[in-house]
């Protein structure tokens, strides 16, 4: 296997060396693509040193050398890769030695476009641990509940399977055939500053045949620290609701261009509508809610039940 690992780098001078070296220790890794996104810290210099030290490490910045976010940085990385397979790694996370163990077997089947695995959690600071446990409250192992592949992965991520599929798997645990990604013409939504990874995974699960790999033990570790933006957003706060609306609206606009199963398209619409309502205030919010309930009472079965009391 010739795997290209894309690492977007922002404000990660303390962690990026470990991330890069965790990838380079794996025989399957053909190259590491660093995309430095105008970090406020010393990350650029660290990246330059890594590129000088290791022939497999290639460093890029955006043409204007400005900050464009993780989605745009990953898209730039996708333009630069030359390997047959693509993996992603956040600059404050790292791979474990078994990262591509499942891939070496599962990609022997030409039907398999992508493989996803489980990742673990490491608390790098006490404050990061506190914020993670209070706002995310996730388990140590981020994984799914049972093996799955194909359309069941897409439906599972939407919560439409008979059995509870489980959490989102993350980019750190995902490997994709480069040819499959190019065929789908899928890229990250650069308008999303948060949740572009979840948005990408949902769309990928529809366009490509994904298969679960190692789901009962971690193949990578996510680092939780003071600067994790996602852990600072309190669930069902106005900021959380707005971010969720942007995420579901991205999926909704994408779904309008496709012929999805009816329950899938309805679920995406109702989630989008629920968080759209949660961002409104006053009389217009009440009227819009009543109209929506009359048209489709299933709106009350969405996450809106947690947010409708916010004014």
TrEMBL record:
Annotated coiled-coil segments of the chain = none
Keyword Transmembrane helix belongs to the record: no
Q: Which InterPro entries match?
A: Glyco_trans_2-like, Nucleotide-diphossugar_trans
Sequence ranges assigned to domain Glycosyltransferase 2-like in this UniProt record: 4-119
User: What's a single GO MF annotation on this record?
Assistant: hexosyltransferase activity
Q: Which domain of life is it from?
A: Bacteria
For this UniProt record, the keywords arranged alphabetically read as follows: Glycosyltransferase, Transferase
Question: This protein is called what?
Answer: Glycosyl transferase family 2
């Amino acid at each position: 296997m010739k795997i290209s690992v894309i690492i977007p780098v922002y404000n990660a001078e303390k962690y990026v060396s470990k991330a890069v070296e965790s990838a380079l220790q794996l025989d399957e890794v053909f190259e590491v693509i660093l995309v430095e996104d105008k970090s406020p810290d010393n990350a650029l210099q660290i990246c330059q040193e890594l590129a000088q030290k290791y022939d497999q490490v290639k460093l890029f910045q955006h043409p204007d050398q400005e900050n464009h976010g993780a989605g745009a940085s990953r898209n730039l990385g996708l333009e630069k890769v030359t390997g047959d397979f693509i993996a992603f790694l956040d600059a404050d996370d790292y791979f474990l030695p078994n990262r591509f163990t499942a891939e070496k077997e599962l990609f022997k089947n030409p039907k398999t476009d992508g493989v996803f695995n489980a990742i673990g959690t490491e608390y790098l600071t006490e404050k990061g641990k506190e914020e993670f446990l209070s706002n995310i409250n996730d388990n140590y192992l981020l994984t799914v509940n049972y093996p799955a592949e194909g359309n069941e992965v897409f439906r599972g991520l939407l919560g439409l399977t008979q059995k509870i599929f489980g959490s989102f798997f993350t980019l750190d645990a995902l490997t994709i055939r480069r040819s499959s990604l190019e065929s789908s013409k899928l890229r990250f939504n650069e308008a999303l500053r948060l949740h572009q990874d979840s948005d990408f995974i949902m769309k990928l699960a529809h366009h490509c045949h994904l298969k679960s790999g190692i789901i009962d033990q971690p193949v990578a570790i996510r680092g939780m620290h003071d600067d994790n933006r996602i852990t600072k957003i309190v669930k069902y706060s106005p900021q959380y609701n707005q971010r969720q609306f942007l995420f579901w609206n991205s999926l909704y606009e994408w779904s309008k261009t496709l012929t999805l199963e009816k329950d899938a398209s309805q679920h995406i619409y109702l989630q989008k509508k629920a968080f759209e309502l949660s961002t409104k205030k006053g009389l217009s919010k009440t009227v819009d809610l009543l109209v929506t309930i009359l048209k489709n009472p299933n709106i009350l079965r969405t996450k809106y039940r947690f947010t409708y009391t916010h004014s």
